[in-house]
Amino acid sequence: MDQGSGLRVPMIDLTRQYREVKDEMDAAVRACLGSGQYILGPQVQRFEQDFADYIGVEHAVGVASGTDALFLPLKAMGIGPGDEVITTPFTFIATAEVIANCGARPVFTDIEPGTFNLDASLVERAITPRTKAIILVHLFGQPADIDPLLELARGHGIQLIEDCAQATGAVYGQRKVGSFGAAGAFSFFPTKNLSCAGDGGMIVTNDGKLAESIRMLRAHGSRTKYLHEVLGINSRLDEVQAALLRVKLPRLDRWNDERIRIAGLYNQRLRGVSTPPVAPGRTHVYHQYTIRASDRDSVADRLSGAGVGRAVHYGLPLHLQPCFADLGYEEGAFPQSEQASREVLSLPMFPGVTDEEIERVCAVTNTVQA
Length: 370
Hints:
With 370 residues, the protein is an alpha/beta fold. The chain has two domains: 232 residues, Type I PLP-dependent aspartate aminotransferase-like (Major domain) (Aspartate Aminotransferase, domain 2); 118 residues, Aspartate Aminotransferase, domain 1. 38% of the residues lie in helices and 15% in strands. The chain is built from 13 helices and 14 strands. Strand 2, helix 5 and strand 3 form a beta-alpha-beta unit. The longest helix is centred in the C-terminal third of the chain and has 18 residues.
């Protein structure tokens, strides 16, 4: 395959999506600014209902970030010092960070090498009398294997929380991720499949009491102004972001279909690397298109030198991060996660990337492997 003329390809270009919906987004912002209602107003309320309907749950609670969307369910469930929460070491720091920030202990178990998601067969042996929850992550847009983890959680009387930050719109069986566990946490960070123009997050649940508790916690522990029943935090999705998300939500499935199409082209044209497999019964929405290569650093350097965007998600598993040194894990504890961290490389993936750009990415990657 010819490398082409030197076309530069960004890892992501947010302006292309903005140009597609510019008029509606601009009008939504102007309407919000003109309304004088900027915090927890009608746009947030409508988007919460829209999002709950989209995911197929009873309740959705808008919060300030995807990190808070993970933290607040733990806090509402009363998880704290002396408790343990099981999760994956191969994910973004926020997943385990929120556990520690509740005062609980993150307990890691290893991943499936193909999907990069939590290996359900390894989780049961990590459960102790102190275990209060499992946080599974639908990494890179592919659903984790939910059914065995849900069965395990129910059997042991613990909570299952879904980290859906990278998988908005992904489907497991016949249902969207986020609709299975006690709570699902979503991020609307600008690079996500459904994104706003800053930070934003959403918690979904079918548990009305849990939703009510989270709504109180996001507003300084208050249901009535200046009456604070518990200690909460300030974590509110603002009106402007909700208005922008309402413009984008009806287009999300089409944009996810475009990501799936792009992934299919990569799968057809890449040589000499491991392309991401999709497990049966799951719809992968490709927040990232992440390959594996034994000579990952050489591939990454060649792409950078050719002006092609790439990123490593993630180069150091959480159990080896300095902030978790006190947990006592050592290198070799989770071999699949550690090997993945040495081999993974994410390629440009966003709605609006052109076929010519895909050709360029594959040409440079394949040249490395030649």
